[in-house]
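Late entry, written up from scratch paper. The run itself happened at the end of the previous shift, but nothing got recorded in the book at the time, so transcribing now.
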Amino acid sequence: MRQVPTYYPTEEEFSDFYSYVTLIEADARAHGFGACKVVPPESWTPRYTHTDYNDACLAQLQIPAPIRQYVNGSQGVYQIINVIEPAMAWDAFKSASEQQAERCLHRAKKRQNQAEIENEGAYDAIEELERKYWKNLTFHAPLYGA
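Output as recorded:
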């Protein structure tokens, strides 16, 4: 079995990773694999992991283009519209996410209690979960900050 090609970019090449990947795609060694290995320079340090974040670090974090996802439709036919929201600080993003989660959970529990009374055993568990997922999306537009 052949090994996938391995690349060792310089700091300068690695600083513009998109351009470096474009160079790799043009390299004949990469063809026929669909994958390659890129070893970062020794000086490179990865981004924070979730355990590295603290309150001071998060307070400085800015979500440059949060996306709100609106879903419309019914009976298996849905349209999704992604809207880029204005930039927001981490604390505002966290607060908006937590408020939305509380609203969703409150309504979901209310609907679940009603459904248990009206339709006990009427749905298969997987079908019920999928139905609740899509119904919830149409009522509550999720906010993404990646």
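Helices lie at 11-15, 17-26, 55-59, 90-118, 125-139.
(Scratch paper discarded after transcription.)
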